[in-house]
Amino acid sequence: HPSYLHEHAGGRLSAFLKSDLFKIRPINSSSSWRRGAAHLINASVKEDASTFFTEEFPNFIQCAGSVDGASVCAKLVSMIHDQPLESEDPTIICQIDFANAFQTPNRQLGTNDCILGIALRTYDQGRVKGAALPHLKALKNFFPYFKSMNDVASRNRFTDNEGTTHYIPGSRGGLQGDPLEMTRFCLTVHPIWGRVLGRHMKTLGAAYADDTYLMGKIQPTLLALADSVSSFRDDADLEVCLGKCKIYMSGIPKERAHQLILDCINADESATLEIVRPMLAHDLDVIQVQGLCVVGTPMGASQYIRECVRSKCGTICKDVEQMRVCSDPLVRY
Hints:
alpha/beta; 18% strand; 4-stranded mixed beta sheet
């Protein structure tokens, strides 16, 4: 019944501390009704989604719909990383970080327009209105499901450490933990990445869900990064956290890498690149020269890789030990 949809659309919230022991990562185990329907829908469009995400655009590939997509994404980035070094105009790899990627996007875009394949509102600074949007045709048949789950504010339950249950409405984005959420999120951002990189054909893009990597020479790649910041903010209400992004230059001293990026920004007469200047602040760890961790796979100098693997092993051991105290069957690892 329509009056009960908010219950079906909701779920059980869990709050996990991030590595800084301050910020919270919310995970939502959706209701059994929603989870069952979403799983069946996702299974039925899986092959079509893989083809759509990997073949729609010539210079951008979304790997989240592919088998072992994280490894595929890491391999694509490593192919660019392994190209011969040019010290005067090196290839850079920009790692994009979104704030609350799954919970934030505008539902008009992610639930209606990207499922139906038509821009019912204005996008791309007025350049897209009433036009067809890239979309997964196999998913259009399931539009009533998306409408029923996202036209209401989902009721999500969170039980605190004192046993008190709090009811938290969800009116943006989706549920990170829902079987269909990965596909829905990728559909939301795919047209935007297509438009951005369509204007910057010298830049290549590879992504695994919200983990996105822009690759190319310094100027065109920084221009694509600057374009993406404003495009995602305007079209999807998604914020790129510039201070958490990474710019990786292999085999170049850090001071030299910093200067090359600064020179590029200063030489931009259009001032388009001013939006990325804060990334050069010395208190931020944006510029990387030793290596980069791509969807959990480290690449770069041997010492960097060894340190990443050692750190990850320690983190996993610690997490497993902490999870032993969990008796709730809804918590899985």
